[in-house]
Design a protein that fits this description.
The protein is mostly helical. Helix content is 46%, strand content 6%. It has 14 helices and six strands. A hairpin with a 4-residue loop joins β5 and β6. The protein starts with a helix and ends in a 23-residue tail after the last helix. 41% of the residues are buried.
Amino acid sequence: MSLPLSTLLSESLVAFTIEFDNEFEKQMPHWTTNYSATPGSRRGLWLVSMVMWLNCMRFVGENGVRVSELEDFARTKTNLEGMKRWGYIVVGPDPADTRPKPPRPDWLIHATPKGRYAQEVWRPLLDVIEKRWQARFGKDEIGQLRESLSALKGRLDPDLPDCLPILHYGLFSRAADRKSQSRGQEPGGSVLALPSLLSRVLLAFAIEFEDESRLSLAICANVIRVLDETGVRLRDLPHLTGVSKEAIAMALGILRKNGFAALDGRPKMVDLTPLGREAQKAYVWQLGVLEERWRKRFGSHAILALRNSLERLVPFSGWEPYPDGWRASAPKPATLPHYPMVLHRGGFPDGS
């Protein structure tokens, strides 16, 4: 049985992100809450994922960037308070601004010394990992994937961000509310990176799905998908979904509050309510409807070419962690997320 288009896009993006993050972790002195830490780095940077480079740090130049400009450049919000707390940036009034109390949107964001070092580590990694994929899967294969994604991207909203947004209330994906002055290119004018192409197409699909759904694609694809009326052990959900227990907790809070799932028993079991079973059927049906709609809108050949390119990347290899990386200490899931759970916790694609 073939995977939904959104799952193929998601797994490709997650695999690239994990490989990117593994390389950053290897090169950057850091610490994490539960797993690895570079010796002597507890006062250093807390480890974050690729999204925080794409929605924040790549726009923080030598002279800083205004708070009001960052979201315009990124075309999505970042976790500004988190990036301050984790040691990457400082935010404060412009010294050249003579007003007694300049409004916060006019404040400047500057990288800390460790944040500048992180920028130097991050800057080449998109190209490094894509070249790795060319060597692993074939240069022509990755070129065809790029071509297929670019053909769709050119017909989508040009103001979609170059990364998935941090999920909003209800774990919904949303595009920026305002139009950007910076479209479709990396800083410096180069073409979009491969994960940015994947993100734009996937986000367009997710927004269209969520316009017609009571539940987000993130919740449906990762949690609703694996549940049934007989119950699944709560502790098994991270393994079955590829999503962290923290992200599972957020999703279940929404599902239980709105009557889609119940949690009871010892061991704790999660099962779908009648309303949840209806949502599960609606999720599967809607994915089929949307993909058929895209075939009509963009052309069957374009969607088939994209599917073929994505399917050739499965099964993934190369994103396994380094032996001393934090993912090597974490339980290994049975699958990659069927939709990235990008949370405020650092932007990791599995909500870690």
